[in-house]
Every structure is written in structure tokens, then in C-alpha cells.
Amino acid sequence: QVQLVESGGGLVQTGDSLTLTCAASGRTFSSYAVGWFRQAPGKDRELVVGMNYNGGSTFSDDSVKGRFTISRNNALNTVTLKMNSLKPEDTAVYYCAADLTFSAVRTAPRYWGRGTQVTVSS
Predict the structure, then answer these.
(1) Using an 8 Å Cβ cutoff, are 68 and 83 in contact?
(2) pLDDT given at position 38
(3) Could you tell me the maximum CA-CA distance found in the chain, to the nearest angstrom?
(4) Fewest beta carbons less than 10 Å away: which of 34, 77, 107, 110?
(5) CB of 14 closer than 8 Å to CB of 88
(6) CA angle in degrees (0–180, nearest 5) for 33-95-91
(7) Continuous segment of H or E residues that includes residue 81
(8) Alpha-carbon span 21 to 81, nearest angstrom
(9) How far is CA 17 from CA 11, 41, 60, 87, in A?
(10) Pairing mode, if any, of strands 116-121 and 10-13?
(11) How many CB atoms sit inside 10 A of residue 23's CB?
């Protein structure tokens, strides 16, 4: 019932900033928890940042704390990932995901976008 479309990926240099946007469908989106995952070549997909339905609870992986920030605008059905001080190890396909609970997002979210590539050159 939820469709997610990521945008904003691209090629940047070490130290640059980049903002990814996830556009969601459905008038019930405001009740969904969301997260941003990434998958680098040869590595498992990992949750980097997440947020519950109203922003009252968030999660950030240690690798991105202080650099990545998740936010949402339920009126516009969008989720944003602001990435600062990008490093080559941030290179990955970034996916937006959603589910009814924050716990579900952190384990196995039901809804996924197709992903957007972020490449950070050294």
C-alpha cells in the first residue's frame, strides 16, 4: 500500500554533503516508521538511520552519527537523509524503507524503494 521513491544520489567527493529524498505515497504514511538502508558492493544491506512515525524515536548507526540526519514531513509524505562529511566508505546504494512499527523497520521492513546510488570519491 506504500510506494517509495528515492532521489538525490550522485557522485561527490570526500567531505562533500548530499541530501537524499524519499517520496512516499498513501495518506496513511504518517503512521509508518521509516529508515534509510545502504548496501555497498560485496557487503550486506545495513540500516544507517531510522525514525518512528512521529520522530519521537530515532536510530543512527555508529558509522554515521554526527554526519547523517533523518527527518520527515508527514504533510508532504517525504523523508530526507542529510549527509555531511561524506567518506568513500559511504559509497553504496541507499534505500528508503517503511513499515508500521519502528521495530519492523529495524529488522525487516515491508516496503522498499528501488534505491539511489551514492558514490564518494577520494
Answers:
(1) yes
(2) 98
(3) 41
(4) 107
(5) yes
(6) 135
(7) strand 78-83
(8) 6
(9) 11, 21, 17, 10
(10) parallel
(11) 16
| Chain segment 54-88, per-residue pLDDT in tens | 889 999 999 999 999 999 998 899 999 999 999 99
What is the pLDDT at residue 15?
A: 98
Three-state SS across 17-30? CEEEEEEECCCCHH
Distance CA 118, CA 41 (A): 12
What are the phi and psi torsion angles at 107 (to 5°)? -115, -65
pLDDT tens figures, 23-43: 999 778 899 999 999 999 999
- The total of other beta-carbon atoms located within 10 Å of residue 20's CB is 22
Q: How many helices (H) and strands (E) does the chain have?
A: 1, 11
Location of C-alpha cell 549527509: 83
Closest CA to 119 of 97, 86, 81: 86
